[in-house]
Amino acid sequence: MTTTKAPAAGRKDGPNEFGYREFSLGEFRFSRDEYFAYVTWPTGRHVMSVDAFLRALQRDVAWEFFYGIVNFDGVLGTVNHYGTVDLFAGRYNDAYRKAELDHVENIDTPVIRELFAEMLDDWTNAGFDPFASPQETGSAFGNKHGQNTAAVTRHRVTAKRMVSLPGDEPLRDDANGHPVNRMFADVTQDEPEVYPEPGFEAEVGSFNLFSYLARSQVTWNPSVVSVCRDSLYCPTTEEYILPIIHGNDRAEWFVQLSDEIIWDVEDRDTGRKRAKVVMKAGDVAAMPSDIRHQGYSPKRSMLLVWENASLKIPQLISSGQFPTQPVEF
Amino acid sequence: MTYVTRLASLDDYEKGGVEVIDDDPKNYAFSNIFEVASHAKPFEQIAVGKNFEYVLEVVRVEGVSGWRGCSHDQSALVLDGEVEFTLRTLNATESLPPNGSVGVADEAIGAAMGRVVARRGHLTLLPAGRAYRYGSGRPAVLLIQTAAGVDTLYRWAEICQTA
After folding, report:
1. How far is CA B100 from CA A77, B68, B150, in A?
2. A230–B160: do the CB atoms touch at under 8 Å?
3. Domains of chain B as residue ranges with CATH
4. Is the ipTM of this complex over 0.90?
5. Are A20 and A122 within 8 A, CB to CB?
6. CATH classification code of A157-216+219-318
7. Are A229 and B54 a contacting pair at CB < 8 A?
8. B157 to A329: CB separation less than 8 angstroms, yes or no
9. Domain ranges of chain A
């Protein structure tokens, strides 16, 4: 494996013959044409369908590199070190590692965040929304035509205490641009009955989470709706395929609120297949910290992703002080 | 096309599962909220998720609970039925442990703060440092976001897929 520390800023060139700019981060080079995204590094090259690349890139940008590893596919991805980010090719692929063709660069978070955001904006054409399900958006392909900056720079919901409380993230409704999604037309829209005594309006609060999720414009985008210190409720609506393969640096939990998701689970470091986890409404499952997972949702479904955001956890697990599975019995 | 959103309830749920390729299903602590609640006594707080000091507790609500308090925020998601939450202040002398909820004596209960009537899909704040109780005329199910406390029950071997 080759490892380098990337310079303090990325580089942008172009536009190329297809109208798209080309980007460099350290020794990684990114370019696209009508159909594909191309990535090169000193010991290799990779090609991805550009729609899949942009869907993965959108999540990496929107989630600020998330927890642990965001694999774009079986070769390319990032690792969040919460201040810096590893950009890698082949690091978590058994064949690349054994052949010593993998490459990693450690980059300051603001640098890679800025370059990835610019690449996402430049490479996303008018009519394509990387956050939408395939049936809800246009094509990512072709020569450069227009932009969709509004889609790739959406506000990410991050409640401080709970959605709907005074001063916190607001509810969604038709008036603020959040109609009920076509696949959730049968979800009840009634609100709870809330009767605070005078002076206690900030503490007596409740909202229809299912209605809130039914009005989400995006897919596969965990967003904080409820906070209990480091315990975060991050529900999301899922349709088609999770655009990334998530490798944990901590355990996370899934609570299937509606419908069904089928999860492919692999070893986090090698990609060895480990299990399929089929979740139906009411099911609860842990995703341990030594796996990576990718989900398939045939109908838009509601998933409650439960995270522990403590920054102490990755080191506790990687050092062996805590096991990779969250409960032992 | 008309889409049907499949929710579940105490009377109607279907469990998925772990299909092992090269693994131990216990690694996933796979359970089902409605299955857990269907075997639970009213107001037991059964952990279905744990992440260091934090837990997810399933509670079968049937009748009215005793008063409880917690030093930190909690949330309660109704997954079946209708639940009424009643909130009151706590007297200043009442001390609460750092993690998890505990029962509080009637003498510690203070002024009325309000109430919430919540149904399936509704998420309700149980605010830090306050007293609350919940009740339902027919069996209902709550999922509570909280920290592990003295009343949290662990039944992993009973509720989780092991083979």
Report:
1. 38, 10, 7
2. no
3. 25-156 (2.60.120.10)
4. yes
5. yes
6. 2.60.120.10
7. yes
8. yes
9. 2-151, 157-216+219-318
